[in-house]
Design a protein that fits this description.
The structure holds two protein chains of two kinds. By secondary structure, chain A is mainly α. Chain A has a domain of 199 residues. Helices cover 73% and strands 1% of the residues of chain A. Chain B is an all-alpha fold. Chain B has one domain: Methane Monooxygenase Hydroxylase, Chain G, domain 1 (Up-down Bundle), CATH 1.20.58. Chain B is flat, with a radius of gyration of 25 Å. Chain B starts with 5 loop residues before the first helix and ends in an 8-residue tail after the last helix. Classes of the chains: A mainly alpha, B mainly alpha. Chains A and B meet through helix 1 of A and helix 4 of B.
Amino acid sequence: MMPAYYLEAAVVILGLVLMVMEAFVEKADKSLIAKMGIVGLLVVLVSLFFVSGPAEGDDAPIWSFYAVDPMALFYKGFALVTTILVLIMSLDYRSVLQHYMGADQEKPGAGIGEFHYLPLFTCAGLMWMASAKDIVSIFVALELVTISFYVLVAFMRRNVGSLEAGVKYLILGALSTGFFVYGLTWLFGLSGETELSKIAAALGNDDSAMVRYPKALLFSLAMILVGLGFKIAAVPFQIWVPDVYQGAPTPITAFLSVGSKAAGFVVGYRIMEPFFANHVAPQLVTLILAISGATILLGNLAAVAQENFKRLLAYSSISHAGFLLLALGCSSSTTSPVNVEGVMALYLGGYLAMTLVAFHVMCLVRAQLGSEDLSAYKGLSKRSPFLAGVLLVAMISLAGVPFTAGFIGKMYVFLMALQSRYFVIIALAVVGVGAGFYYYLKVVRAMYWDDAADDQSVQISTLSKVAMLTMVALIVILGIYPTPILNLFAA
Amino acid sequence: MNTDYLPILVQFLIAGGFAAVTLLISVVLGKTAQQRSEVKDQAYECGMLPIGETQPRFSVKFYLVAMLFVIFDIEVVFLYPWAVSFQEFVRDGVWVAFYSMLGFVGILFLAYLYALKKGALRWSD
């Protein structure tokens, strides 16, 4: 057994080693960097089962801002799996990257090595964020994630779309960080503490400024919610999402839509949790529910009209943020045997599998057919039955067909909302799910019922096949037997 | 009124006053030399030429050097407060203060090697 923070250190060291190796071993093929990263992260993923929290009587300073609980371990694994799949995708996406990195005849792989090891630093940030329980360490982890994303989003420097996405993400990311840190300073000013557990303890004390000035506390929580709203793509902070998702390199879009969102929810839950059992709970819940309802409605309805698959998934990602917010909003009132952490983890776990499969297919189609429009998916079942099959599973799971992870996640969210009697939001969510069936199955229709323009087939490497099959298996297994994740969080 | 913040107000007044006084002096003194000529109106020394593109393109090397400067500047900013409190930490046997700074400087060193190898500091070519 080793302390849990060795894992983050291992990931950072792996990233640094690959960075130096990429710069100094010029002869090596750049895809070797990604492969070494994948192997290294797999080792870290396995060692996740052999870590421990503080021993009895161990009061080293690190344990005051670093949590080792089921939630932390689950989302560390989540970050690692996401990063591994993103690295596999980036191998499939190389030809597109190479095209937009400037065709240097002497050094064909120039600049691509960085694309393969920068995600490791993002991963370390995501892992740290899963454990962070002090507002300073939350902020530092969040910045590590965001800054490495700034580079990755704008990576295809000869592609106008990627540059535009980079500028938009940089400006809005900085703005959201401003809101977030402003909220944190108010929270610190009211409580005088940076440690979340001490802030929660101070809430019970009637002399605390947090109790005496509920409006100031609400202002601080609202600012934090705005800052995180940008990260998780909630309405009305979603405007950057379609453009950035469309412009960024596809593996990074996948990373943004899964990793960044999960991290936003972990941080949001950790910060908000004590306040759900408190005097500001009614207003806070109303705020979250209002955002949630608007997000579900706008995300799903705007997705209906999309003709570009990447933009469609961007709006789908917005709508899923709405459902997750609905789960968060049930925190103070749910009485069901399953708790909010469990449902959020289950939903995000399923979301990871289905979204990454969809983006993986998109990477392959973009690299080999040269388009991200839905029209490129016409007749995909004839080009590659395998790709069409896995995308079919991902799409019906995203829509929420029974026996898939997407269905189970949505079912539990609806269950909690019903118990909490949020009937208006449930009505909006039903409209959203209905619209979801239309636009997710539109992709399926294009793949199976429309004819392809030519008979070009799509090649898939064994590694990608294994990765996609694993995720499809995860979708089905979670859809039938979600108990392990729910048990992990059972009190 | 919180008197602790009075010095800040005074500083604002001095800063504003300084700007106003210098502008005023240059106007007053400038009046004595009314004979303007083309040569006198030209930019001199490091002044920008008044005619040309409004957004001239700079070589990307300037940005690279500026970014590297900021990185190593921040390193020094962190090193100072650390150095001040280092002795105290070591006296108390808190060696983590030493190792964490070693890690920080080590990561920066690797980044420096990377920048060097990628030619960020090579000015010619």
